[in-house]
Design goal:
about 375 residues, alpha/beta, five-stranded mixed beta sheet, three-stranded mixed beta sheet, about 15% strand, flat
Length: about 375
């Protein structure tokens, strides 16, 4: 039965997955990416090489047509925050940062996103994922035509290639979920502890940063490796030194934030950032600390982000009964942040935990709440 399971193709994992909404690297800007991420239920958006404003009908389907789209990578709010926090701190306005092409948010390496055919074997997909690929782009057959979705004045397109092909992507979590659906095949392995199975990696150190390390460094590392970076505190007890696990920073941790968090990332340490984003949003005292540090560093452009968030806090406290306008938007953001706050809590498991328990724990932790 295990042989039959591994004979599956990636198309079996695509059943029920919606086509990708994406941005064009040719026309989209950073501002477009921010608006799309805020309005989308997905925490990641794909960026493609083609111009989605141009139709791709059969009239253009000839041997010399090179207009087929290629996925160049994926972006999330953490990419935006990291980009803005590193932007030229001498500029008075961030308008040039927002008008920059969306391609500035893409990683240098394009190996994290790999195109595969729907007939690709599951075993080959597993090899690609374990080899470093984060997303496998798979074509899915749909009705003809190109579809566009207008989200708050931002056009995100469901990419359509020639022959009416659209695309979805497969992640590591999708493969784990697929195996969980056939968990009986692996019996009795799944009931054994991870220690008994020897799957605990004791040779490779996990990525960790000190409480007072730069938040920018931690986020950059998390994005580059698509992992969670552990934040630890060595403490001040010299006689009984021990490391305390504070939390974790990952792209999912910052999914509850918006572009205003760039000011905090640019000034706070990794541990301070966890306090900043934890719970239902930053407090006014947090914003004052961030603003003071920005002024000390002369980072004038980012101060406008802090001021915009401060004005929302003031508006929320003075107009709590208003169901409309900026207050409502802020409250929605706070509600989303509260649901996502658990993402900053580091996930741990016991050596005696069964393989099935650990797999379910991973999926639950990586699931999208919202």
């Amino acid at each position: 039965m295990a042989i039959t399971l591994l004979s599956h193709e990636v198309s079996d994992l695509c059943i029920g997955k919606p086509p990708l909404h994406c941005l064009s690297a040719i026309t989209a800007t950073v501002a477009d990416a921010i608006a799309a991420l805020k309005s989308s239920d997905d925490h990641f958006l794909s960026v493609w090489s083609c111009n989605h404003d141009e139709t791709n009908d059969d009239d253009n389907n000839n041997s010399n047509n090179k207009s087929d789209c290629e996925c160049l990578g994926k972006i999330c709010m953490a990419d935006v925050i990291c980009y803005l926090s590193k932007f030229d701190n001498k500029v008075l306005s961030l308008s040039s940062a927002f008008s920059a092409p969306v391609s500035v948010l893409l990683p240098n390496s394009r190996s994290i996103v790999v195109h595969v055919q729907s007939s690709c074997k599951l075993t080959e997909a597993i090899d690609l994922i374990t080899g470093g690929a984060q997303n496998l782009i798979v074509p899915i057959q749909t009705k003809r035509g190109q579809h566009k979705v207008l989200i708050q004045n931002v056009v995100t397109t469901i990419t359509t290639h020639n022959n009416s092909r659209q695309f979805c992507w497969i992640t590591q979590e999708d493969i784990i979920r697929f195996f969980l659906g056939s968990i009986s095949v692996f019996s009795p392995l799944t009931s054994l502890s991870i220690s008994e199975l020897g799957v605990i990696n004791t040779t490779q150190a996990f990525l960790a940063v000190d409480y007072y390390s730069s938040a920018v460094t931690a986020i950059s590392c998390a994005i580059a490796n698509n992992i969670s970076v552990v934040v630890v505190d060595g403490g001040c007890d010299v006689e009984y030194p021990r490391i305390a696990l504070i939390g974790e920073i990952s792209p999912m941790t910052l999914a509850c934030c918006d572009e205003t968090a760039a000011a905090a990332v640019a000034t706070l340490s990794a541990g301070e950032l966890l306090t900043y984003i934890h719970g239902s949003g930053p407090l006014e005292s947090h914003l004052r600390v961030v603003r003071n540090r920005l002024e000390e560093k002369g980072m004038v452009g980012l101060i406008s982000l802090v001021d915009s968030l401060s004005s929302l806090l003031v508006s929320s406290s003075s107009d709590e009964e208003s169901p409309r306008g900026r207050t409502k938007l802020y409250c929605q953001s706070v509600s989303r942040a509260a649901r996502m706050a658990r993402k900053s809590v580091a996930m741990v498991c016991n050596r005696k935990s069964s393989l099935m328990a650990v797999m379910i724990q991973v999926i639950a932790h990586r699931s999208i709440f919202g």
